[in-house]
Amino acid sequence: MNGPVEHADPAAIRAQIHELHRRHAALPADQIVSFYPPEAESEADRFGLSGVHVSGVRVSVGDCGRRFPLHSISKVFTYALALEDNGREATLARIGVEPSGDPFNSITFDEEQLRPHNPMVNAGALVATSLIRGGGPREKVERLLERLRLFSGNPDLRVDAAILDQQLRTNDRNLATSYLMRSLGMLDGNIEDNILVYLSACSVTVDTDELAVMGATLAHGGTNPLTGDSAMPAEHVRDVTSVMTTCGMYDAAGQWFYDVGIPAKSGVSGGIVAAIPERIGIAVYSPGLDAHGNSVRGVNICRDLSTHFGLHVFAGPGRRTFV
Description:
The protein is α+β, with helices and mostly antiparallel strands and 323 residues long. It has two domains: 32-67 and 206-224 and 235-315, Beta-lactamase; 71-202, Beta-lactamase (3-Layer(aba) Sandwich), CATH 3.40.710. It is built from twelve helices and seven strands. The protein has helices spanning 10-23, 74-86, 88-94, 122-130, 137-152, 161-169, 172-183, 191-202, 208-219, 237-247, 253-259, 296-309, and strands spanning 48-53, 58-62, 68-69, 205-206, 264-266, 271-276, 280-285. The strands form two sheets. The protein has a five-stranded antiparallel sheet. A two-stranded antiparallel sheet has the order 3-4. The protein is globular and about 55 Å long.
């Protein structure tokens, strides 16, 4: 397993991934701080892991068919569409790219530039949503769904109406953030319509097989490696994966990059998507969150995968067993 992947035995790679999944099957209860929503504690034993190489090779372990909402993972794809619609400079003028160091739902901004810190926190994602073109919330949601379907290769991805309704009923903080940003000139238009689009994207459900393809599409320069369809312009992929690297794991992004070293985004449903450029996409689903809102099992197994297969972006060539 020290040579390049074309000389490696795919069956041996799959066996090692299955073994890593088995090692993390026991829930580290002492590391669990919360479940979201709280009733997700009944799903504590769910644990899916999927990987897709840019060559199209796939591996799935555990509860890979279990569907869960994207929640904050959707911010990656909302930002991608905002970049496509507005271009790099216009988007950067409205949303920064600096880690905030604060929780994802903090009502804090870059006061010098008068913009949200980055598109991976709620404030930045709300502004990114407002930058998506469309004649109204329905058209904007359809455009987001179209992109998510291209990323995943699943033409049937849709918004889960029950999850969206739950999100809309517990939405006060997003409303407060939005109205404050509008008062400061960072956001314009109809606040309720914009939040409907934002939460609709958060309420799209996926499984880890689909989410890994989405990660692999980012890793493959915006082209789905299984379908060959372009999901986003290649010139914006670098910006999206860069922000995932520095801001994607909430206020634990620095520790994540130090330990794991790959572009990733988490969601409070227990999902994580990772995209290693020109190599692979990885997806994990495991409810049970740490103090930062990241999946405990997800973080732990991604750390082991990075170490075992040399996935850290600064891993030396001799450490890599995927190319």
